[in-house]
Amino acid sequence: MALIELIKVTKIYDDNALPVRAVDEVDLKIEPGEFTAIVGPSGSGKTTLLNVIGGLDKPTSGTIIINGTDISTYKTDAMINFRLQNIGFVFQAYNLIPVFTAKENVEFIMLLQGVPKEEREKKAIELLESVDLGDKINNKPTELSGGQQQRVAVARALASKPSFVLADEPTANLDSVTANNLLDIMEKLNKDNQMTFVFSTHDARVIKRAHRVVTLRDGAIESDEIKDKAMANA
Amino acid sequence: MLLALAWKNIWRNKKRSLIILVAITLGLWAGLFSVAIMIGSWDTTVNSTIDRNLSHIQIHTKEFKDESLISFFIPNGNKIANEIIDLKEVRDVSARVLIEGMASSPSSSRGVNIFGIDPDREKNVTTIADYVVEGEYFNGIKRNPILVGQKLADRLGLKLHSKIVLSFQSVDTTLTYAAFRIVGIYKTESSPFDEAHVFVRKSDLYKTMNSQPIINEIAIRLNSSEDLDSTYAILKENYSSLYVESWKELAPELSMMYEYLIIEMEIFLAIILAALLFGITNTMLMSVLDRVREFGVLMAVGMKRVKVFSLIMIETIILSLFGGIIGMALGTFTIWYFSDKGIDLSIFSEGLSAWGMPTILYPILPLYFYGVLTIMIVITGILGAIYPSIKTIKLRPADAIRTYG
């Protein structure tokens, strides 16, 4: 059973006079443990597709099945709860809570899940250590570099023990060294923990490391290339 | 952690939070102090009217209430007065003779209310003795002493020890003239009262009229104003043939003034709270709009809308409570300070005196009012936060995350 399955998913934005078909009848299956990049030029629908997979946006038509559950018809609060239990997010602009320390940012997700204090503190420290930020647990986002903030965001995304992580342009704001460093960590998490990562990106560094590259054009899948079949199906 | 997040959010923009805190503090302080001044002013006026001449309860005959003639005296008035003194709630009683007459000096004359009193008993019922500014309270002149108000003395061109002639209708309806000598001049906070009331010994009036010791009015002073309603009920029952009135009926304008005061207070507080409501809504809206992306992320990662709503509510309640507590402390201190020292309004003494109001004002505020205002402030805070909260939970995470600001 595929971890993520999209059947004829379409998303049309009709807020303006001219409706925009951002995602056009996309059929896509992503298996557990994949390290997949969704690529394409600006306006091709990468972010919209990621939002639809993550339940941040509702599809206009089609079906989205995550772990065997059809989430296309979920109401807002049910969707929020589903995201909390199943999906980790990494955003382009890090989006950490500025008033919280690195540890508190990671802990917060577990608090929403109702994890007891001691357990979530221990887990938050472990996660921050796994992204090489063991010495920055009490630093606030403003006291961290962009790369460090994005690593906290990765730790936060993993805190809820999600089925997969959606990363929207995670390296767009980072320099080469920092981006590679972040990708090393994500690759390691993918390899060691079988954590599924789905990226929306046009960063060559991410595309180079991805095991599978799905290319979008005008909202539709133009190509679906599996570079490393063994890794992609791992 | 929700509380911790709310607390930290409040202080992320210190200037904005301090502005709303100061607004709430000043609003509450101003509200408390103004209401205390209003109630204090009413209370001082009432007390001063009761102290000056009204007393807590008065008894007359029904005929006297219709037409203030000396001939409508209270049958067995002195006996009734002595019975009333025995009530444990009663401090003392002044059995008075009341006559409407004319006071004349060599230069002018004025219509006056002549109070025939027992000076010693009157001292226990009213504070007229304390208002004597010249001469002495029925001391120094043996024959027909009279106490007149400063305003009347000025109008008639009289001084201490001057002679004044009172003319009035006697019990047997004959017109009586009697000369009195001014033993003291009093000055109360009410110039209309000073102009229209003179006090003489009732024994002198009996002698002048060659009358029995009759009385027209029994003025009753209670030990505590809290006993008013119960004592009033007892007297009303015991002396049903007579006209028993509490100060509320004797001076209906004061009771009415209290009702107006309550309406004024409600309008005043409504204005303060409405201003606060808009202030809080505006501040919270700015605060929320500054954090659109953050709320988008919170909802994206799994924070339920009810928790987002609660977060904004908690932030507002904390701000309102803090402002409320500081405002309450400031208000309490200010009221406490001035309730002891008083607010000197002597600069407006002439105007206040025309309305019978004292020139020193003592603000007071019933204890329950502090609680009521605190609850109202918190409710205002909650109401003020509703719109920003609803606006926030209506955000679509996908759009909110892409907002920059």
Tally of helical runs of chain A:
8
For the biggest β-sheet of chain B, the strand order reads 2-3-8-5-7-6
Proportion of strand residues of chain B: 15-25%
Strand content of chain A: 25-35%
User: If you compute it from the alpha carbons, what radius of gyration of chain A comes out, rounded to the nearest whole angstrom?
Assistant: 17 Å
Distance between the termini of chain A: 14 Å
Helix content of chain A: 25-40%
Distance N to C terminus of chain B: 25 Å
Low-confidence stretches of chain A: none
Number of strands of chain B: 12
What characterizes the major β-sheet of chain B?
Answer: 6 strands, mixed, barrel
The CATH topology of chain A is Rossmann fold
Order of helices and strands of chain A: EEEHEEHEHHHEHEHEEH
CATH architecture call of chain A: 3-Layer(aba) Sandwich
What is the string of helix and strand elements of chain B? HHEHHEEHEEHEEHEHEHEHHHHEHEHH
- Looking at how many chains there are and whether they match, the oligomeric state comes to heterodimer
Features of the shown structure:
heterodimer, A: 234 residues, alpha/beta, Rossmann fold, six-stranded mixed beta sheet, 37% helix, B: 405 residues, alpha+beta, 2 domains, six-stranded mixed β-barrel, two-stranded antiparallel sheet, 16 helices, 12 strands, 19% strand, elongated
